[in-house]
């Protein structure tokens, strides 16, 4: 029953759009379904890092944790603002911005940067998952278990965003590419600004 409660709560958390969903939607509109799915892979990789940090504990890096988070957040914010600005300026579908046909690692990197640039993701996992653990059992294994359950829920619904907006893009791409670029660029700019003002 506890697992069911956890899955329901995870679902409610994941469906609320945040920085990762904004990135996935923007790139699914701009480059197509494959880009959005690769973003999802990147965010899942970032979640693995955060869950393992939470499970193992961060005593060793705790004296430097605040500075590390700040530096990563600023780098990620600048990267996304630049990406958003370049996307916003596009008015046509150049070769560079057609649907990607291959495994492009830059989209995985984008997803990884966004999830790791957002300290709230780590703080959220740190306050959310422990509510479901049994203190009488080994904590590390439980945190990893619930963390990976959360990842599965996140992958399913983030993937759904990529599929929906990737297909939406295919329907209207020829007529509304300028508008799509502005929408995608604006989303990325907002995510970057959000990270800067945290």
Describe the structure.
It is a single chain. This protein has 198 residues and is mostly helical. It starts with a helix and ends with a helix. The chain has helices at residues 2-14, 19-31, 33-56, 65-89, 105-117, 119-128, 139-196. The protein is built from seven helices and no strands. It has one domain (19-196). Residues 93-97 have low confidence and may be disordered. The protein is 79% helix and 0% strand. Helix 4 crosses helix 5 (105-117). The longest helix is centred in the C-terminal third of the chain and has 58 residues, at 139-196.
Summarize the structure.
The chain has helices at about 1-15, 20-30, 35-55, 65-90, 105-115, 120-130, 140-195.
Beta-strand proportion = under 5%
- Approximately how much helix is present in the residues? over 70%
The structural domain count equals 1
Give the SSE order as H and E letters: HHHHHHH
Largest sheet: none
What topology does this entry show?
Elements: H1 2-14, H2 19-31, H3 33-56, H4 65-89, H5 105-117, H6 119-128, H7 139-196
Helix pairs in contact: 1-7, 2-3, 2-5, 2-7, 3-5, 3-6, 3-7, 4-5, 4-7
């Amino acid at each position: 029953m506890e697992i069911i409660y956890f899955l329901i709560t995870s679902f409610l958390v994941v469906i609320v759009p945040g920085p990762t969903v904004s990135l996935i939607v923007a790139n699914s509109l701009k480059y197509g379904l494959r880009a959005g799915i690769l973003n999802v892979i990147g965010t899942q990789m970032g979640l693995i890092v955060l869950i393992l940090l939470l499970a193992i504990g961060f005593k060793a890096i705790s004296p430097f944790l605040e500075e590390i988070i700040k530096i990563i957040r600023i780098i990620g914010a600048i990267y996304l603002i630049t990406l958003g600005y370049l996307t916003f300026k596009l008015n046509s579908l150049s070769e560079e911005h057609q649907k990607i046909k291959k495994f492009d690692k830059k989209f995985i990197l984008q997803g990884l940067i966004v999830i790791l640039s957002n300290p709230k993701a780590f703080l959220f996992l740190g306050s959310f998952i422990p509510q479901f653990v049994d203190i009488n059992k080994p904590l590390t294994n439980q945190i990893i278990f619930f963390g990976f359950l959360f990842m599965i829920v996140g992958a399913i619904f983030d993937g759904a965003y990529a599929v929906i907006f990737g297909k939406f893009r295919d329907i209207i791409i020829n007529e509304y590419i300028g508008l799509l670029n502005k929408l995608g660029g604006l989303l990325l700019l907002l995510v970057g600004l959000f990270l800067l003002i945290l």
